[in-house]
Amino acid sequence: MERDNTYRHILKWGDKREEEVGHHMVTLIKEKFGLTDADFREKYLPGTDEVRLEKPSLLKPAQADFLRSISGEENVLTDDFHRTQYSCGKFYGELLDLRLKRVPDPPDAVVSPRSHDEVARIVAYCSEEKIPVVPAGGQSSVTGALRAPFGGIALDLTRHLNRIVKINTVNKTVTVQAGIFGPALEAELNRQGYTCGHFPQSFEYSTVGGWVSARGAGQASTGYGKIEDMVVALKAVTPAGVIETRDFPRTAQGWDVFRLFSGAEGTLGVITEVTLHIFNYAPQNTRLAAFIFRSFEQAVESMRRMIQSEYGKPHMFRISDPQETDIAFRTSGFDGTFPDRFLTGLGFKTGSRCLMFVTVEGERDYAGFVMGKIKRSARAGKGMYIGAGPVRKWLAQRYSSAYLRDPLMDLGIMSDTLETAVTWENLLKVWSAAHEYVRHRPRAFLMIHISHVYENGANLYFTFLTPMEKGNEQQDFSRFHSGLVDTILASGGSISHHHGVGRVLAPWMESHLGRSSIELMAAVKRHLDPNNIMNPGGTLGLQ
Amino acid sequence: MERDNTYRHILKWGDKREEEVGHHMVTLIKEKFGLTDADFREKYLPGTDEVRLEKPSLLKPAQADFLRSISGEENVLTDDFHRTQYSCGKFYGELLDLRLKRVPDPPDAVVSPRSHDEVARIVAYCSEEKIPVVPAGGQSSVTGALRAPFGGIALDLTRHLNRIVKINTVNKTVTVQAGIFGPALEAELNRQGYTCGHFPQSFEYSTVGGWVSARGAGQASTGYGKIEDMVVALKAVTPAGVIETRDFPRTAQGWDVFRLFSGAEGTLGVITEVTLHIFNYAPQNTRLAAFIFRSFEQAVESMRRMIQSEYGKPHMFRISDPQETDIAFRTSGFDGTFPDRFLTGLGFKTGSRCLMFVTVEGERDYAGFVMGKIKRSARAGKGMYIGAGPVRKWLAQRYSSAYLRDPLMDLGIMSDTLETAVTWENLLKVWSAAHEYVRHRPRAFLMIHISHVYENGANLYFTFLTPMEKGNEQQDFSRFHSGLVDTILASGGSISHHHGVGRVLAPWMESHLGRSSIELMAAVKRHLDPNNIMNPGGTLGLQ
Q1: Of the residues A87, A121, B146, B157, which has the fewest C-beta atoms closer than 10 A?
Q2: Which residue among B171, B259, B455 places its CB closest to the CB of A256?
Q3: Out of A215, A242, A251, closest to residue B494 by CB
Q4: Could you give the CA distance from residue B258 to residue B394 in angstroms, rounded to a whole number?
């Protein structure tokens, strides 16, 4: 097989397979947006051309030579394909750019260091030479955090720095190099009786360093915690030196320096090693349950009572709002079946009914105990248990919905996701404001779910679909997207719960966090990165 | 009653009552240290003189006037007694100083602001005038964090900034002014069906702002978390402006700025308001259990297995090592009784047996479920259940052992506590190294317990007793104390788990954390406090 040097190869998710939108979903899209098969005859903006960059690499020959002398010839790439591949992540606007054959922010080279020491030498050299450095893991960022607006090098941590350093079974921790992907980590942990407990939708194509840098959350984060809850220690290379913290449990020796790197998104330095908590691997203990509620309000109230009851916690804990529930029912062929009519008869009606999915993991009796409590609470909250099947089905495809966006774009459908953390007090306000906003766009559809739950609030996760404005795709998207961000923030949501900020959400940072907080963050950055080489150009709103 | 203006009044703990060392304990001390009643005929260094300061207040009249114009005449005190009262906390070395009529580091004035805005105006003014500001809560610090080596003002937050701002029952959070004491907070929460979940030994005489600044841990922290786990948001006045964070659950909007103030010990600014998670108040649900193990090693191994089993967690979770267990048995009159002989016959022998205390709180069935698991695990780990009584007894006197140090010092006994966070892997190493160190001092006694437990490790809490070297009390203490710190760090412990660093442990910070980390902390400090007015003079090792 010939090497696939196309934009399409770069923009596509995961294993690069060609996916199609399922039959039920296509019918729904046609119906909702008044489209016909004629609209889908050809793939829209397929991006099948071969990559060509107009910007030559601006790295001076001496600089490229020096980098090669550190990491070896084969680990310093300056060809168009690799520079394009490392010019972005998987943000909708970036995928659109690639389909439009635009590569606005390529790095000048892609460097794959072979050791922590090589990273240290590269960062020191780049700081001296004022060459930007953009650390890259699995490149699944959806926030524009991987762009190189000032060129420089993309520092690929996945090629070599991808090993497990140590599994410590006494402390129940694992130390890994930052460029290890989820599956490699999980497979070895499973072999030894443990799990990492962190399963973001990008799990198969994201790295521990990326998880920590962006403050990711996994699908079972309600039980296992977000990645920042799992970090015990880390090692990071900064232009001001190496920061290495130790694996003490909860100390009181000033504030936690390591926490600055969790959420820094590459702006402070390069995380090279991370020590994480690990958990017992016992999938046979996992209890599953799906419930249906008559309204989003009832489901949310029930969820809040469950998480605040102090009888233990679910691991995965989700609610799909009525819009998402309806899509789930329609695309699975459930609509109109006997069980559907049965549910409708009981008052669980299309347009208002909501699904709640729960897993409880851990020790066998604990999982049974907590699930028993959850079932009783659901009943008390007017939810109905509908079996474990829907959750099992959902888990079986837990990573595959990420493949849906590319074929949707092939159909000319704009589709993006946003998410926010919000207190219980403001949750319904943000939820209805977002729906209200999207209703104002003709032919637009929004579905929302909750997938990470805390004592004082939860996240809301927004997925919208709407036909692209052909010929004006970027501007139209950008306007629509930023209106949604404005709406979320104005009604009481945060900038992000687990996608991070990157460059896409950076413009909102100062007004959202306040000037004193942003100035404090900028001061930390100036100290660690005085020449502003670490992921420069707006990430986190620091410039 | 006349006002008690003595050093003794200042140095004494809590409600200032005159305590005596119990009969059993005195017998033990005489026996262990070869002392007789003759040695105790008079209170040693009783500190009953009236306070007299040699250093006059260096505040210029115009400065004092300006502070009075902000906070009112009655809230700016410059008399000797108050300046002395605010010159220190409750570190052993400080108590000794007071007994020796030494006041090395008095502030020039004690100011009690009436509002957040007054704090802001005072901090801005002091920054301009380069007047040091030492924030003070309950003054229970045992790390020298409250001294004013460069004078300036002690900022007393307890007099006015001590109110509950809001109990949010939807988000299960409470917002308080930083100067509120534990009991006032807990009483109002209890009235509304909640608890703060944070019960340090200093609970009655410490404040929320102090808890957060020093990163305290409560007696039930294994279940409820340390104070830094409970902080949802805070408001702090810094010379560079007000930092105010919001109450979102777990966001990904850069790193958490509010976390810098947790552990800053007053070096970055003044925390004026804190929002904390709260918990359901249901003391009737609490399950108690005490176990006895044949050795410290067995007890620790059993505890580790319990916390790593993922069946839920105890709230209070403690082990007393053989030395502490023996003292507990002897001073309670248990030694030599029939049950004692019974235990001895079963192999739980004096000199090696260990007590483990457990409570499980929260929802009723959960408490029962987890306690059932703990009991089974204890049995599997060769521990024996000995009833709930010992735990109930311990809880009844949970805050009173803090009163013991003053009468011990009256007897001429040096007694101090240290504590560390350590991984399971290093725990026994630190434990035996500390005992080994203390064994080298003639007539010294060390007891150690574990009282805060995590998946990857625990704390060790050291209490030592030894006769003072009369006439050379400070130097002798200082040498002995720092040798113990050296020992703990060298064998794998951290500087502190929950007392904090202050000025006493500051000298170890750089070598312990590494130069890059300390420089990073210093850079944060320089940004927020460019004139170095916030708790200056070495706190946290920042100078």
Answers
A1: A121
A2: B259
A3: A251
A4: 35
Alpha-carbon distance B302 to nearest alpha carbon in chain A (angstroms): 12
**Of B153, B182, B174, which Cα lies nearest the Cα of B87?**
B153
Q: Which amino acid is at A258?
A: F
Residue B1, C-beta contacts closer than 8 angstroms, at least 6 positions apart: none
Please tell me if residue B530 touches chain A, with a CB cutoff of 8 Å: no
Cβ contact, residue pair B241, A515, below 8 Å: yes
Overall average pLDDT of the B484-496 stretch: 98
What is the Cα–Cα distance from B541 to B538, expressed in whole angstroms?
A: 5
- Band (A333; pLDDT cuts 50, 70, 90): confident
Cα–Cα distance measured from residue B47 to residue B84, given in angstroms and rounded to the nearest whole number? 13
Q: Which has the closest alpha carbon to B257: A452, A419, A269, A515?
A: A515
- The β-bridge partners of B360 are B287
Bridge partner residues of A360 (DSSP): A287
Search chain B and give the residue with CA nearest A493. B248
CA distance A297 to A534: 44
Cα separation of the two ends of chain A: 45
Residue with tokens 């008390």: A380
Separation CA A526–CA A240 (nearest Å): 10
- pLDDT tens-digit readout, B108-120: 999 999 999 999 9
CB pair distance less than 8 Å for A279 and B216: no
Q: Crossing angle, helix B23-33 and helix B322-331, to 10 degrees?
A: 130
Taking 50 as the threshold, does the pLDDT of residue A519 lie above it?
yes
Q: Residue A543's pLDDT band (boundaries 50, 70, 90)?
A: confident
pLDDT score at B1: 44
What is the ipTM, given to two decimal places?
A: 0.97
The length of chain A, given as a count of residues: 543
Q: What is the pLDDT of residue A335?
A: 86
Contact A111, A69 (CB under 8 A): no
Contact A308, A433 (CB under 8 A): no
Token pair, residue A293, equals: 């509620």
Nearest Cα to Cα of residue B51 among B10, B109, B96 = B10
The answer to whether the beta carbons of residues A378 and A356 sit under 8 Å apart is yes
Q: Closest partner residue to B240 among A217, A304, A516, by Cβ?
A: A516
CA distance B399 to chain A (A): 22
Q: What is the dihedral of CA B5, B10, B15, B20, to 10 degrees?
A: -100
Closest residue by Cα to residue B378 from B313, B300, B302, B455: B302
Question: For residues A448 and A434, is the Cβ–Cβ distance under 8 A?
Answer: yes
Interchain CB distance below 8 Å, B256 and A263:
yes
Gap between the Cα atoms of A234 and A506, Å rounded = 25
What's the maximum distance between 2 C-alpha atoms anywhere in chain B? 75
Cβ-based neighbours of A33, under 8 Å, separated by 6 or more: A413, A443, A445, A466, A467
Does B2 score more than 80 pLDDT? no
| B182's tokens | 């534990």
User: Average pLDDT for residues A47-64, to the nearest whole number?
Assistant: 95
B466 to chain A nearest CA, in Å? 27
- Average pLDDT (A394-419) is 95
**What does residue B254 show for φ and ψ, rounded to 5 degrees?**
75, -175
What is the C-alpha separation between A509 and A541, in angstroms, rounded?
6
For all residues of chain B together, what is the average pLDDT?
A: 97
| Residues 6 or more apart in contact with residue A217 via CB below 8 angstroms | A200, A226, A227, A451, A452, A459, A497, A498, B250
Convert the pLDDT of each residue in B139-196 to its tens digit: 999 999 999 999 999 999 999 999 999 999 999 999 999 999 999 999 999 999 999 9
Phi, then psi, of A484 in degrees rounded to 5: -70, -40
- Taking CB atoms and an 8 Å cutoff, what residues of chain B touch A365? 311, 369, 373
